[in-house]
Amino acid sequence: MDGKIVFTRGVPPPEAFPAEELSECFDAAIRNDTAVVLQYGQQPGYAPLREELAREYGVSEDEILVGNGSLQLQDLVSARLVRDGAVVFTEQPSYDRAISTFRRRGARTIGIPLEEDGISVERLEAALSREVPAFLYLVPDFQNPAGATLSLEKRRRIVELADEYGFWVIEDIPYRKLRYRGEDLPMLREIDSSHVITMSSFSKLLSPGIRVGFMLAPSGLIRDVTTLGENTYLSPVLPTQAAVAEYLKRGWLAPNIERLKELYRPRWEAMSGAVRRELPEARAFIPDGGFFVSVMLPEGANTENLVGRAKDIGLVLTPGSAFFADPDDGEPSVGDRFVRLPFCAVSTEQIDEGVRRLASLI
């Protein structure tokens, strides 16, 4: 196979978008609620969407803020919680844009090693004995970038530690509903919500372009973050939020999720199989859902200018070091050996050929 193969951003392919349904929902939202949807308004987000989310998650509407994607909400929460000299803990590796967001807000960002079943609780406890973070940022289901899922035992221990030490836990769950095998584990907030901030978005389930994300948290924190939002962007983007509310009200989300699973499952299987076949010496994270398989290449692998050499043979990769915060133990980062492999926006043929090209470089 000739041509460029892109293993960089975790984006949906064009065929994933429910364009006709969204078009109907935009039309209905604007026609039926014109005076609200096309005006400045509701600072915590479009009221009917918050009502839908409150029903789904069993919270009150004053515990919900809808924003312009979950990354914007992470930035606002960081602005509220991070003080001079504060530390934030993440998984190691973690979502690169979250790491850069926390650093931009002045936080020292420390990565706690990731294991097959999620963040190392032993290393987390050791880090907590040294200092308490403003918050711990987790992607507990089909983690970005690695694909790991946090075990039930670790979920329980983490909320215990949050209560004991008094820090917030952000659970970011944009991939949670895209499970291809196995059974759901409870969200951290379902175990104990007292120190948990839950964030998600509709980017992976409907469209990234609509920029609709939300957070669930105690009402006092929601009020504080809402005020920061008002001072930042004046008013939420009501037309897109209203279209999502209409989509949910019509009961279309669950069928669309099933359609996405059918679209993505063969690609997940192809990437999982290709990694096992072509990179048998690497430590592979094979997820039960989501957008990413990942590998930690063996110590003897040739990682010198890996991204550049890959580009020379038509394979586009994201530098692994971008996903690594400051190490918790002061040891050098192993980010040059880490490779994230998004599979949703590439064909099974591209997956097989792309992983073969990667293997040829190392």
Descriptive report:
This protein is of the alpha/beta class and 362 residues long. It folds into two domains: 5-16 and 255-361, Aspartate Aminotransferase, domain 1 (Alpha-Beta Complex), CATH 3.90.1150.10; 19-249, 3-Layer(aba) Sandwich (Aspartate Aminotransferase, domain 2). Helices cover 42% and strands 17% of the residues. It is built from 13 helices and 14 strands. The strands form three sheets. Strands 2, 3, 4, 5, 6, 7, 8, 9 and 13 form a nine-stranded mixed β-sheet that branches. The protein has a three-stranded antiparallel β-sheet with strand order 10-11-14, covered by helices on one side. Strands 1-12 form a two-stranded parallel ribbon. The longest helix is centred in the last third of the chain and has 26 residues, at 253-278. The model has no long low-confidence stretch (mean pLDDT 96).
Compressed to H and E, one letter per element, the order equals EHHHEHEHEEHEHEHEEHHHEEHEEEH
Number of domains: 2
Helix content: 40-55%
- CATH top-level class of the largest domain: Alpha Beta
Alpha-beta content class: alpha/beta
User: Into which percentage range does the β-strand content fall?
Assistant: 15-25%
Mean pLDDT: 96
Q: What's the N-to-C terminus distance?
A: 20 Å
Categorize the overall geometry. Answer: globular
Uncertain residue ranges = none
CATH homologous superfamily placement of the largest domain: Type I PLP-dependent aspartate aminotransferase-like (Major domain)
